[in-house]
Amino acid sequence: MIDIKLFHFFNDIAGKSFIADAFIVFFAEYLQYLVVVVFLFLLYVSYYTLQEKRRMFQVVIISILISRVGVTDLIRIFYHRPRPYLEIPAHNLLAESAFSFPSGHAAFFFALAAAVYGFNKKWGIGFYISAIVIGISRIAAGVHYPSDIVGGMIIGIFAAYATAGIYKKIYNNSQQ
What we know:
Number of strands: 0
CATH superfamily: Phosphatidic acid phosphatase type 2/haloperoxidase
Order of helices and strands: HHHHHHH
Mean pLDDT: 92
């Protein structure tokens, strides 16, 4: 039951103060938009060639689609894990109706981070940190168990590395 203990460790932060709850909600629900804008901005102002920018953008988008829309939603068709606040006493700061496992947010943002990391380590570390912050805050908000976040993380990272590998093979074959 380490999952439950870790859930309570993070979720017990919620409900203590308005300011803490506001930060949790911001990181769990709104940071995601800022992360996407930062990615697009960095890509736009970077010194990469237009072809390199396209490759990075394509790998990121395909990785996100595979992990979030493909694998995560496919798992949720067959495995119906209720949200923590529906099963155990928890502070619930967000309204979520979909099943809990795996975390779609974690799949999305870890796919983005891993795909970016494959092109730019410095940017990738920043995106990994934001993915971790989003994941932990979603636990604190009461909408995910830690194992939901870990499941989404594995799916996202695997999707990004698989996409990058396939994309690299296709790209290298088209160059010959």
